[in-house]
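re: ur question from earlier - yeah i can do the single chain one, its not a big deal. heres the input i used so u can compare w yours
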Amino acid sequence: MQTLKQLQNGELKGAVSLKLSEELSHFPQEIFELADTLEKLDLSFNNLTELPAEFGKLKKLKILFCSENLFTALPEVLADCPLLDIVGFKSNRIEEVSSKALNPNIRWLILTNNRIAELPTQIGNCLRMQKLMLAGNQLNKLPIELSNCLNLSLLRISANQLSQFPEWLLSMPKLSWLAFSGNLFNVKPSVPVIPFIDHQELEIGHQLGEGASGIISKAGWHIEQGKKEVAVKLFKGAVTSDGLPEDEMLAYIAAGQHYGLVKLLGQVAAHPEGRAGLVMELISPRFFNLGNPPNFDSCTRDVFEEDMNLSVQQVIKIASIIASLAAQLHSKGVMHGDLYAHNILIDQEGNTLFGDFGAASFYDRENAKIANSLERIEVSAYGYLLDDLLSLCKGTGTNPTILKLADLRDKCIAQNVSTRPNFEYLTDQLMGLSLLLVLNNIITGP
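and the output i got, formated as tokens:
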């Protein structure tokens, strides 16, 4: 992070990226001295309420973050930046989004946790849009013109005021990651009862990780047999980019037991600050993340370490476990909404654990039309996961098993949503491929 003083002293001349967080109440005019080079500007965590009229002077600006400020309207001057690609105004006080503020070049728009009740129909002119984050607003409908955005792949509309599910979303050709919990049309499901574990029985240790919805820590659980090492996730309680922590917790409980899930041991009770939480088995350190979250360039696609390489056997095992787990989730009316490699842990043998239910949503399986289409939206996400796995399986392009996997991938990401297979079919196909691999190994030997 740079400082305002550095900017004012001319020390940042030629900067491509600038990040200032100093409780600014006015846009520093010195930023315009970087107009010839500046591509990324982050003014998050300030007290800004507007951008200057001449903001369009930043002709090379591609990425703008103004989260955690005091904007009440999405600035119309955003449309004056010809290369603007990514815009983030999370957690402001935005009530108004005018048609003039929607730069048609935008590929990734973040408006999470504001006060937006309506979007202009002109959002349908943002034909490059791939990622749209709208969770935690007051939307009572989505403009059908958004269906013109045929590149839209990830959509978050959780925690709004939608009274009906927008059924036109179900035919969007590239939509793969969808979260819609916490709306008026949602019905809270009945989930299995799991044990309550008193917070006083838990000895919270060091932090293992932190996500948008909560913090996971290693802990000792004092039971009759002694102290058992576990993992505890305590939820923050606020709306995230994906949705509400309460829905994440319910979805995890509803998912049930599966060898591809970290075992859930109980629900935290009597936390001194009233926070909700879950107690889970501690994951063995032999597991590691399959992938990393999307970056600014990849937008909706995960990225991977350069030295990441998988065997055919590993690919089949990972793909089989995820397909089986997804089939189980759908059988319980749970849509994961975030089926990505970065939410998958694997070990060297290809044993797989899937997690992060932050974008999960419940749906009514008795409504066959909507249920089938929602499930096939998630199948598309799985198709992109298969594509990632195939890209990590290097030098095997003519392997018959790989060719069959590539065919399954193509079926999963078909533009026509209704033609995609379901996870039961995919599980059966992958089981067949696993058996073929075993038979080939027996015949050909090690």
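Residues 191 and 254 are 5 Å apart (CA to CA). not sure if urs matches, ping me
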